[in-house]
Specification:
Number of domains: 1
Shape: elongated
Structural class: mainly alpha
Number of strands: 0
Order of helices and strands: HH
Strand content: under 5%
Helix content: over 70%
Distance between the termini: 13 Å
CATH class: Mainly Alpha
CATH architecture: Up-down Bundle
Number of helices: 2
Oligomer: single chain
Largest sheet: none
Length: about 80
């Protein structure tokens, strides 16, 4: 194995871990929002807004991680 293949492997593993973490985080946010809506139906709008903001922040971090991994793969 040469240096290039190890760089690609590291980038692939990094993107995979970032996607798994983002999926887990968004799943937890969604589950908590559904539970909160079930407990307090009158607060559905506020809960939904907070959930969408949190999910967008998680996706932003995941996208940043993917870009970093792609840059590292092209520089390796």
């Amino acid at each position: 194995m040469n240096q290039f293949s190890l760089g690609y492997l590291a980038a692939g593993l990094g993107v995979g871990l970032a996607l798994l973490g983002a999926g887990y985080g968004i799943g937890k946010v969604g589950a908590a929002a559904m539970e909160g809506t079930a407990r307090q139906p009158s607060a559905t709008g506020d809960i939904r807004t907070s959930m969408i903001i949190a999910a967008a922040l998680i996706e932003g971090v995941c996208l940043f991680a993917e870009v970093v991994c792609i840059i590292l793969a092209t520089k390796a």
